[in-house]
Amino acid sequence: MPFRHSRVRRIAAAAAIAAATLGGLTACDLFAPQDTLYIEEASVGVSATVGNVFVGNAVLVQGEGDTANLVTTLVNTGRESEKVTINPSGGTSIDVTLKPRETKHIGNPPSEESLVTGVEGKPGGLTTVSVTSGGNSVGLQVPIITAALQPYGTLTPVPQPSSTGSPTPTPTSTP
User: Which backbone phi and psi does 35 adopt, to 5 degrees?
Assistant: First the structure.
């Protein structure tokens, strides 16, 4: 029977080594900081949560004059529709309705919904943008940038055609 005791000892030793190794490998968070606990902005814009709505990477891309394109992502994390009002300081407000669990990308590409006129501030600076949803409100310090900053080059506001101008003639070919 000495063989049986020797085998039991080897199995017990292997189990003890496996348990110690497993414990050592899974307990690294006791000694090392967890970077995932501290979320940092990965781009120029700012983010916040307003009630059940997450506002992600908000930035104003300045065009000609005082017109800017608000670029942001809105996510409704709730189970009910949410009305979101975005009001840049000195600018025109934007109203967006989000269905439950809906994600909307505003300003990419620029559209009438994302254009803001009367923006206070200059490129390189910050302006306050109030975001209201579900009775909650937060003031974000949103950066104002230009198309010179990549990857925002294609997000400059497009000038709106005037309603009083005559239509542009369509080129025709002669046979």
Answer: -65, -25
pLDDT digits (tens, 9 = 90+) for 58-88: 999 988 777 889 999 999 999 999 999 999 8
Q: What's the pLDDT tens digit per position in 90-142?
A: 878 899 999 999 999 999 888 888 888 888 888 889 999 999 998 999 999 99
Q: CA-to-CA distance for 130 and 141, rounded, in angstroms?
A: 9
Pair 87, 60: CB distance under 8 Å: no
Q: How far out from the chain centre does Cα 67 lie?
A: 21
- Can you name the residues that pair with 82 across neighbouring β-strands? 98
Burial 62-94 (b: 16+ CB within 10 A, else e): bbeeebbbbbbbbbbebeeebebebbbeebeeb
